[in-house]
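Lecture 7 notes: from sequence to structure.
We start with the chain below.
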Amino acid sequence: MANWNRKKVFNLAKGFKGKRKNCYGVAVRAVHRAAQFAYRDRKVKKRVMRREWISTINSAVKEHGLTYSKFAFALQKKSNIELDRKILATLAQTEPLSFKSVFDEVKLQSGVAEIMRRKPLVAQMTGVSYPEALTKGYIVENTLGSDLAKIIRTEPKADIVGLRFPERDAKTDADFMRLSYIEEDEAFLADEARKSLTVKE
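Predicted structure tokens for the same chain:
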């Protein structure tokens, strides 16, 4: 900024408020700051304009029953029409009939028309009863809950009951594998109950 003369700085500072437009010391700093923002926003402007073009095309395409993403894919990959977003957005705003003709051509070349004519997947569904679905194999009956219920509700019954204290009660080696009958169990429980009685009882 050192080589900028006063005339150049004041020309660039036109429209600024207060001393920023007529005091050289303040104006030169304001112009320098404005130049930095201008450098940055020259790049930002391209993004903003592209976003506006896309929103304009999206709203125009939705009127004809399609989304922007599908239209852009069909335009670029499936058709030979070479129009950029700026031209399409201008056509959508100023020439709706021309945009409609472009849209119809893209739809025809890319085969999007066939997709749009198809019924939705929900409309193609048919009702099936529960027994019919089981027989056709669409669903599998859940038997896990009933199996767990059987296990929980039934009390465990041991087929073979051995001695409670084999080291103490067994007389021979064969007694380790001897079955404990109900009478022996009752006698054992009665004996344990008698041992637990107090002197007063």
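Points to note: The chain has a mean pLDDT of 79. The CA atoms of residues 8 and 68 lie 47 Å apart.
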